[in-house]
Write a structure and sequence with these properties.
twelve-stranded mixed beta sheet, alpha+beta, globular, about 675 residues
Length: about 675
Amino acid sequence: MTAELVRGQNHPLSQVRLEIRVSAGRPVMAVATLGDESGQVPGVEWVAHPGVPTLPGLEVSRQAAADHRLAVDLDAVSATVHRVSVLLALPTGVGGPVSFGSVAAPFVAVTGLDGTEVATYTITGLDAESAVVALELYRRQGAWKVRAVGQGYAGGLAELLTDQGLPQAYQLAVGINEAVVQGLARSVTAPPPRTADGDRSRQAAASTLGPDQSGSPYGAQGTQGGAGPYGATQNPQGPSGTGYPADATPTDPDATQPPPPTPATGGSIDYSHPRRQNSAPPPPPPTAPPAQPGQPARPVAGDATGWSMEERLYNQVWGMFEDLARSTAAYRSAVDFAETRMDKELDQVLSDPRSRIGGQGDAAREAAQARHTQLVVQAREALDRDLVQLGAEADVVEPALPAAYARWDNPVWHAYRVPMEMPMAVRLGDLHLPEGDPLRIPMLVRLPLERGLWIDSGRTGSSDGSFADSHELRRLAMESAVAHMARLLAVHPADEFTVHVVDPAGSGARELAPLVRSGVLAAPPAAGAAGVAAVLGRLTERVDLVQMAVRGGMADSLPPGFDTAQQLLVVNDFPHGFDDRAVTQLRYLADEGPGVGVHLMMVADREDADSYGPLLDPLWRGLLRLTPVPDDHLADPWVGHAWTYEPSVVPPGSQVLQQVLAKVAEARTKY
């Protein structure tokens, strides 16, 4: 049973590996401090913050977000640590709220790794405070407990850290805020929420939150203030995925030019990019006559706002996802209310001795059940109306999707041409809910990839409750990975995406054959421990080189012939062929690679790497888990749904994948 704590209340912890989830409504910074026996923080090395997100047994988010997930392993913290404090602070200098009194009360939940809530705490009573100690985990007589603190500080994070005894509190608070502000400035914009009047018009997109903090599939992770099941959240590296400003690349002269000088008249400096559009996108053009009074609006593909048809379709798909999530949540809530009301009425009948005998009790029970049935029927009718409208919209949207958003059986692939620029997003599969069959919502993930992909080849339960054979699952996982690789190659310009494959035992040779034959890979799949070491070594050096160039302000001074394309590393059968050095390099690439254009795709069974223990937990948590068969593993923290994910597969017997790869290979020969 979940303990709902109030300020000052404590609760014992029966688990040592925990997740602390924070929901604040607006972007906040999450910081964790380690305290000694007296509760004091001896130095900055005892603080986990966006600049230094990991400490032994502790991991926090890398940027400000409305939703955070902090990982804690109390067995892994030092024996000298007696207190772990979770701090929340509002970033300054970003135009957001300056005190917690002007935002919704933050909510904090301590959960097990399976998502089961152990304790929750809503931080109420805050006013002018801009930083707060949310809760603390502390040792008491050899056991750990959690205490709801809720102590706020009007002086912000610096005052809070000073109160915990940190000598360099002010300098550290300034550094944390600067890192977060820079991250927000580079963050990818997310689709806006629905407008109040209920139509599908989309307003200008707003900046979003940090990785793995939200659930929106279309970038908010969301987004985050957004919702969504698969954490397509934003990364502080910017939409280019290379760590440069949104419109700059390593060869863009604007990437290294200083900002405009301050006007002589003393006016404010304009920090906007000279080519960035800051105004709201235009509304969609009218393409269908208005609906007759009393009739639902006739669906039209691309009826959302946006600068292009691609952006309008992207926002429309996001709106369909929101609508299905809201409608299903309303239906489930109504059913829960009906059941609760019936249980209460039946309890009242049973509590009266006079109604337990004779016809009076039977009549009361029948009346309660009839009211329950009526409420459920009404709720289902409302849901069915929404599903009919969404189904009609899906029927017109699906055929209009561009190749990057389309299923493999969409005719758009037969007219495929290698694009000249990267699309906004790519489709990785479909999402649906049990109440909404057969409606499918495309699962679109923003490009460049802000999180690595993990195609789980382990024992996975399919949506119909059956289980596939382990060898068959590994084959299906590799086929799914090949389909994802082919799509990523197809949606990028010919010279802007490079794929490296590591297959130490050669177990994926059959599935990789179309990629190898077409010649679209950077090199044949690397085999054996030597091949693993060579590929990881090259990509690690690349990450180091680009990071040094960017940090040194010399992004345009990379060596001649340097491949500036986005890089994708595909690893099959991990950890076969990996030694400790290779594992360390892989974790480094997963953490640092996306910021400089090096992305990771794992095809692996997590149980195969159990010997590493919790060492690899951050790696698995940082990847977007996909399955080769339909599975309802994508949790949606926004409304609590478990979305069923269906992979995007090539129809049996279709030659579309080979045809697309042939065109990609032909275009690459010109470069």
